[in-house]
Design the sequence.
């Protein structure tokens, strides 16, 4: 058995999102992501994406902080937020991106340190960006009722007792 270890405090944190058109937007941080980084990321999205943005994310503390909510309030004409129910990541298409990177693209990868991990992560994202079909597939596998199968997915979701009994809310 081989064991891979970088050290207890070495890690990367990512903020990211995908679009139904197959685009990936993400940032990498070497520290825990706080509200400031969330606001910076959202500001970046607002400059890079024209028109209205619909943001679907979980109820993480950085997503619901006073700083983030204040920012969201200041850009509500360009950005609508939907909060996913707690502990239901399978609805979030971006979670399928992270799973794909971790378990497919980085399978059996053992970084020697943060620079090595960062290089590999950027390489993985770059290769996935080259296949918009792959990015769009994360929407297809998510039970989130959107896209060409929205009606069928909505029916399945509403028949799932695990989904029906959760708190859904729009901000």
Sequence:
């Amino acid at each position: 058995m081989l064991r891979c270890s970088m050290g207890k405090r070495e890690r990367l944190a990512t903020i990211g999102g995908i679009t139904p058109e197959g685009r990936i937007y993400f940032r990498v941080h070497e520290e825990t992501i706080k509200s400031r980084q969330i606001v910076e990321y959202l500001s970046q999205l607002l400059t890079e994406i024209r028109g209205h943005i619909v943001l679907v994310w979980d109820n993480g503390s950085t997503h619901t902080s006073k700083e983030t909510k204040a920012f969201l309030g200041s850009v509500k004409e360009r950005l609508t937020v939907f909060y996913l129910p707690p502990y239901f990541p399978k609805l979030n298409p971006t979670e399928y991106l992270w799973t794909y990177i971790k378990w497919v693209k980085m399978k059996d990868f053992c970084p020697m340190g943060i620079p090595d991990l960062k290089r590999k992560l950027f390489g993985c994202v770059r290769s996935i960006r080259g296949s918009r079909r792959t990015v769009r597939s994360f929407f297809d596998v998510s039970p989130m009722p959107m896209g060409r199968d929205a009606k069928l997915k909505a029916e399945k979701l509403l028949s799932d007792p695990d989904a029906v009994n959760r708190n859904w809310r729009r901000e």
User: Anything to note?
Assistant: The two ends are 49 Å apart (CA to CA).
